[in-house]
Design goal:
mainly alpha; 2 strands; 1% strand; two-stranded antiparallel ribbon; single chain
């Protein structure tokens, strides 16, 4: 209905705006990349991990634990400097580390399907209720809807770009921040959570703006800004291309082709969405007993192809169970994956930072950008801890 149309236009505009930001910002940032030391990169990654831990988890402590477990998982494989195996338990298949795609499929897709299979009756009832409540007039956006949505889309796109540039934060953080900003500026915040059109527009625009912007640190610095960007590194390496600042000088036609393809994809999203919007809305009518087996089959195929056969499926199943445990205990799966994605880079830059600073923290004075992000990290910990204490229920007096 109307919410789907608002989500479509917000997604297209957010994606297109973020792609244009990628075109404008990536190369100028890359020109300064050689002056950025591992100290700055390590500080940025530390801030990103702390910030996303506070936003996307039930508590800062649980978010940090999940991120640290992701960092621990990233250490599996051959050690960076000595080449000695770590946490491989004698299995040579782990020498290259845990494969990301089977892990992500297991934790994000298979784990969710396991939970949905256990809640099948409730999900089928919700889908039927949504389908019965649909009305043709609900798909028409009025002038008032556009008046409320356009500022939310613009603000959400800007927030999504900012979140995407910082490595590791992810689309969920952008959606959360944009939705919160739209709600705080609304005249009637009580409408949010009950179908407010500007809330849908804010969340969707930020969600789609994060992905292209997350390629800015990948293209400019060689650092994956998200799980998707980390997967793209593998695709680039298969074609003999090393993402980073030198890519603009060595592969200018490739970079231009990527930009053109992303802009074309944004426009294609609009055409496909307008054409098949009604068909997509019927997905809610599909019974869960059909959705779960189909998704699980595709997950197994994907893990088999990307993980080297049976090993990939085994990794997927192990992390599917871990994902369910995380969700049941209130730990963030997203934090774990982000910690895993940036783990190797964080470890390498941390070691290099110790060498650059000569084991003397006072040498940080020579790195003001790193000091700024370290200060932001401390501020984030303080704010999230303070917010958690305020939200905690106060003990009743006897």
């Amino acid at each position: 209905g109307k919410a789907l149309k608002a989500a479509l236009f917000a997604s297209v505009l957010g994606d297109l705006g973020s792609t244009l930001a990628l075109v404008v910002l990536a190369q100028p940032i890359a020109s300064y990349a050689l002056s950025i030391t591992p100290v700055e990169i390590c500080a940025v990654l530390l801030f990103s991990l702390t910030f996303v831990a506070g936003l996307s988890a039930q508590s800062l402590a649980k978010g940090l634990v999940a991120a640290c477990l992701g960092l621990l998982a990233a250490t599996v494989g051959l050690e960076i400097e000595s080449g000695l195996p770590r946490l491989t338990f004698g299995d040579y298949r782990l020498f290259d580390g845990i494969p990301l795609i089977p892990m992500a499929i297991g934790m994000l897709a298979v784990g969710e399907m396991i939970l949905q299979a256990g809640n099948r009756a409730a999900l089928d009832q919700q889908g039927a209720a949504i389908a019965r409540g649909a009305h043709p007039d609900d798909s028409r956006m009025t002038r008032e809807d556009w008046r409320r949505s356009v500022p939310a889309i613009a603000r959400g796109t800007a927030i999504g770009i900012g979140v995407g540039i910082l490595p590791g934060l992810g689309a969920s953080v952008g959606s959360f921040l944009s939705y919160g900003a739209a709600r705080s500026r609304a005249r009637d915040p009580g409408r949010f959570g009950k179908g407010a059109i500007e809330g849908v527009a804010a969340a969707e625009s930020a969600d789609n703006a994060v992905v292209p912007a997350s390629l800015i640190p990948l293209f400019a610095l060689g650092i994956p800004g998200s799980v998707i960007a980390a997967i793209l590194i593998g695709a680039f390496m298969l074609h003999g291309v090393a993402p980073g600042p030198l890519m603009f000088a060595q592969q200018p036609r490739l970079v231009g082709g990527i930009y053109a393809a992303m802009i074309a994809a944004s426009l294609a999203l609009l055409v496909i969405g307008l054409t098949f919007q009604g068909l997509f809305a019927q997905v809610v009518r599909v019974p869960t007993r059909l959705v779960v087996p189909a998704v699980l089959f595709l997950c197994v195929v994907g893990a088999w192809l990307e993980g080297g056969g049976v090993f990939g499926v085994q990794v997927m199943l192990v992390f599917a169970v871990l994902g369910v445990v995380f969700i049941k205990l209130g730990f963030s799966v997203v934090n774990f994956l982000i910690g895993f994605v940036v783990g190797r880079t964080f470890e390498l830059t941390f070691r290099q930072s110790i060498q650059i600073l000569g084991r003397d923290p006072w040498n940080l004075v020579q790195h003001p950008i790193a000091l700024m992000f370290l200060a932001l990290t401390v501020l984030a910990v303080w704010r999230f801890s303070r917010g958690a204490r305020r939200a905690a229920p106060k003990p009743e007096d006897p």
